[in-house]
Amino acid sequence: MTGLTSKSRIFVFTGPDGSGRKTVADMVGTTLELRKVLSCTTRGKRPGEVEGQDYQFISVEEFQEAEQAGQFIESVTINGNHYGIRQSDLDQLLAADDFIYLILNHDGASILRRVYGDLVTELFLYADRDSVLQRQRDRGDSEDVIRNHMSHYDDAMAYQSQCDFVFENLDLAHTVFAITNYLEPYLDRQLLNLD
What is the set of domains in the chain, with CATH numbers? Predict the structure, then answer.
């Protein structure tokens, strides 16, 4: 675990699929100028997803080779798709910046907390079942994919008690504003008030 300083902080955004965790995390990350650690995945791209921006999309063979070489700090299989965070990617970003963020499901978030302990701040985002269902339909997920995601909804919701902060994501702008305000003190950037 190279690159760690006393200021280092890893922000993990988690919550049920369709909760808006990715959208919110990326907007907060942009606002606070946080660096994003990309997960590797073997699943296909969703509409609008971009290689190197949303995920590192790799083949099953590439994933298995990396896993056998011990490159992943965490890896999970969900609905037949593999996801993992490369230790080298996380270390490289922490060496360059004290503050980074990741978007993980509750399994990945739990693993990262075990490895990095108090350096991890977990933010749980959620919306009610009907809103989550509609968001998945709006982004073009197939009914089979939605059914699979919704079968994990209750497990994902149960994880919120393990997180440092919990936000109901009903209004995107409000949620981003609230999370930004919660995280700013962690960054301790010593900003000057020139008013």
Answer: 9-186 (3.40.50.300)
